[in-house]
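Consider the tokenized backbone below.
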């Protein structure tokens, strides 16, 4: 047995042991789960490449030809809206000699925009927005070229609550069924399919993807990292983890502080901000939420805005993150919209920089010989739930 396999088996066994306890005995994962290349390769192979990953929100692609170019597990992808209104996830690999037709920084540094058609810069083979080859110069002399049978590879995609998901796995079960509980119990009333993305920012992250997921889901760190930003609004001690979700999703309640809640209940008003999402009840104005649709779909919702984090793992100690903010379709027509947008963007950057600092610090620590699997607080129940989900998935395949 080779060394890498031995260490992977030991790590999986140590992970299994870590998660097989009640919350009062829960601990952080072994360091190798955040650092070991073989463990990361195993996660990629058995879980991440086989599941559904959110790549875009439909409001990023409002019209025919609007596209986003991004890489998912080294697969060059193009998310593009066709003339038939459908959003597809196509491969960027040209079917002539294999060029990535939009490599990062080559033609369009923003990796987003609008295309009349998809043209390979190498020899100008041109595909329509559905991926079908339209034209290829001087190929009439080739006996093995049949234009109508050439098309860009299309990957399976589904739109869930306005988010475009893709899977690289032809056999993955349909996404809609997988996340039905998340939609029906929680998300439907936000009607995020109608929402509009009004802010986004990309970050290169020097930490393992699970460091971000754990940080995103646990409210314990409001006490420290967010003591001046989120803690006054959503005190850590009032937050709690919803029992529902199983192996589909995880939902955490972040109630507003008691003083604010009492004032809202007394006046029947909403907190000042954007025009709230119209489908919410008065009770929905009293708390924020964080959600994780396993394995990577991260949402942080308020009554008047939702933050979607597109997390794309790129290695054992790196990931690429797009932080975004969505608002109700009615928000932009409000008088004070521009002012709220500027304030909300700054707040999103401020609290995210706090998260970047602690996640970067954690990755430095998990690489250290002094790392210990410390005990988890009751407020870190979401971490134990994520650990159990992962251990179950990684062992099952
Ligand atoms: S590789 Fe794309 S046209 Fe030749
Ligand atoms: Fe945070």
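A designed sequence for it:
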């Amino acid at each position: 047995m080779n060394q890498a396999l031995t260490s992977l088996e030991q790590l999986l066994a140590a992970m299994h042991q870590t998660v097989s306890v009640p919350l009062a005995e829960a601990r952080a994962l072994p360091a190798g789960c955040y650092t070991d290349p073989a463990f990361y390769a195993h996660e990629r192979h058995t879980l991440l490449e086989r599941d559904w990953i959110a790549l875009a929100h439909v409001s990023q692609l409002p019209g025919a030809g609007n596209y986003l170019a991004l890489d998912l597990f080294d697969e060059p992808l193009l998310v593009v809206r066709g003339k038939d209104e459908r959003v597809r996830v196509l491969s960027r690999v040209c079917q002539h000699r294999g060029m990535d037709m939009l490599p990062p920084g080559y033609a369009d540094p923003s990796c987003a925009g609008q295309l009349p058609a998809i043209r390979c810069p190498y020899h100008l083979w041109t595909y329509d927005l559905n991926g079908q080859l339209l034209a290829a110069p001087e190929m009439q002399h080739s006996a093995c070229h049949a234009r109508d049978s050439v098309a860009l590879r299309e990957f399976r995609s589904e739109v869930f609550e306005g988010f475009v998901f893709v899977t690289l796995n032809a056999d993955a079960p349909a996404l809609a069924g997988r996340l039905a509980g998340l939609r029906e119990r929680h998300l439907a009333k936000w009607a995020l399919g109608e929402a509009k993305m009004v802010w986004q920012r990309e970050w290169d992250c020097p930490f393992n993807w699970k460091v971000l997921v754990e940080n995103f889901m646990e409210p314990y760190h409001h006490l420290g990292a967010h003591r001046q930003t989120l803690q006054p609004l959503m005190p850590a001690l009032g937050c709690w983890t919803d029992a529902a979700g199983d192996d589909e999703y995880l939902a955490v309640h972040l109630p507003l502080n008691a003083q604010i809640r009492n004032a809202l209940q007394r006046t029947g008003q909403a907190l000042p901000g954007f025009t709230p999402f119209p489908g919410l009840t008065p009770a929905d104005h009293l708390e924020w939420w964080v959600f994780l649709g396993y394995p990577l779909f991260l949402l942080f919702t308020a009554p008047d805005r939702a933050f979607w984090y597109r997390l794309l793992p790129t290695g054992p100690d790196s990931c690429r993150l797009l932080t975004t903010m969505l608002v109700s379709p009615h928000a932009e027509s409000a008088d004070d919209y521009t002012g709220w947008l500027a304030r909300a963007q700054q707040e999103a950057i401020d609290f995210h920089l706090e998260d970047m600092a602690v996640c970067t610090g954690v990755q430095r620590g998990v690489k250290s010989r002094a790392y210990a699997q410390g005990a988890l607080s009751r407020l870190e129940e979401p971490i134990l739930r994520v650990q159990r989900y992962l251990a179950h998935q990684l062992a099952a395949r």
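Residues 337-366 form the longest helix (30 residues).
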